[in-house]
Amino acid sequence: MEYTILGSTDLKVSRIGLGAWQFSNTWGVTDYEKAKEILAKAFELGINLVDTAMIYGRGMSEQFIGKALKDLGVKRDDVVISTKIPGEFLAYNDVFKAVDRSLKRLQTDYIDLLQVHWPPCWHNHPTCEYMKALERLVVLGKVDYIGLSDFPVELAEAARYCLSRIDIEVLQIRYNLVERQAEKELIPYAEENDMSILAWSPLAKGAVLGKYTLEDIEKFQDVRSNDPLFKKENYEQIIELANLVKQMAEKYEKTPAQIALNWLIGYSDVIIPIPGAKNPQQVEDNAGAVGWRLNYDDWRLLDEASKKLRITYVTW
Question: Please, what are the domains in the chain?
Fold first, then answer.
């Protein structure tokens, strides 16, 4: 496993993390023993960054992680726990209440990285109110570092303005070979300000792997059924890119997932993909995306093929 430093901290994290959204009804890994196997494989392979959120399974994901760490005998200092607080929990007092419950579910005394999951779009909590609450949690020793998930640059700047003793260390964004809008503003902003990028959905929910036919996507009944990437007008284009990814996999004797993740890592040294996994084999797949690099010509070939896509989100 390769490691990097999180933001401007001295915290060493694996270059590939484990996203834990799958420990929920949304993705169907609701059996604790299966979740424990996934986490055990991640730790065995040197993945030490686990990213979850309070809303994943309404606490189920955090509960599974906390219990697994105890059952597997993992030392708390050997794992970096990242969790996220949703926008509707951002009233000043609610921030503390939510974090107290998160700590209990995770069975820990502190959270390594706490991120705001999304801005409080519908509840009108003032930015400085919740950012000051997060800063106070750092001062009190319950949170080590803070970050923002799904924030545009303008709101990230507003959030940072509210802080007096700490700074934002992480931006979590949707970023993959298909959806590259973050390259316009967010990734340059992170590079300029010594922040890490946690890339969620780095495999575009499997769209870039060439696993599904047009007939397959019509049968989806999970979160992908409403994802624009899996609508015919978009997926017909993505299939061509996915076929190129599969060709690269054969050339490098890697898997399509390893090719797609390695491409992201090659784009910038601040990017840390956090793919999910529904079984230990997928964890192994993801972990194998590091320790090697696509050569420049192949990286550019995927880059150019990706840029030809014209994805639309207006699908109804």
Answer: 3-204+257-293 (3.20.20.100)
